[in-house]
Amino acid sequence: MDLGYHWRWITVLLTSFDPFVTDFDRLVQRTFGWADGASAGRAALPMDVIRRDGDVVLRIDLPGADPDSIEVTTDRRVLTVSAKRDDQYGEEDKPVVRERVMGSFTRKVRLAETIDAEKVNAQYENGVLTIVLPVAEQAKPHKIEITRPGAPQLTA
Asked: What is the phi/psi pair of residue 10, to 5°?
């Protein structure tokens, strides 16, 4: 197995394509002193990426999100995940400390050519959205037969 190939493939899978968002995030981090990015990442959708034999699995934390508001779409090799978390305060409630981020959230991931975008599936359970991105058959490694005239066939 060529590990370099798989690393490049995953890198392409997760390539960010919106330079405005990246520049804006850096500006906000510098302005508010979030140089380590720990506080700035609160509003983002944290994601793990797991590579398996025939697919790539994304696990995105969406605790407290309304399950009916979660939307996963693909368009032109871009996977978009969006969700919404509403305020849970009554009219009489006066929050003293507010650390939980509310509102709408979106995460976009560029899909590699090796992903079969027509077969993507998603499941939401216990605050975690799991998205399975199957690798297209033509992108999977396969064995090539070597033929020689007048000799038994060999496989490589």
From this structure: -70, -35
Q: What is the pairing mode between strands 55-61 and 47-51?
A: antiparallel
The phi-psi region of residue 12 (left if phi > 0; otherwise alpha if psi is between -120 and 50; otherwise beta) is alpha
Strand partners, 75: 78
Q: Dihedral sign, CA of 100, 106, 111, 116?
A: positive
How far is the C-alpha of 78 from the C-alpha of 121, rounded, in Å? 14
Residue 152 lies in a domain: no
Q: How distant is the alpha carbon of residue 96 from its chain centre?
A: 34
SS3 128: strand
Classified as helix, coil or strand, 6 is helix
Question: Is the CB of residue 25 less than 8 Å from the CB of residue 43?
Answer: no
Q: pLDDT tens for residues 50-64?
A: 988 888 999 999 988
Task: State the CATH number of the domain containing residue 9.
Answer: 2.60.40.790
Domain for residue 154, yes or no?
Answer: no
Tallying the residues shown for the chain, one arrives at 156
Q: Report whether pLDDT(1) > 50.
A: no
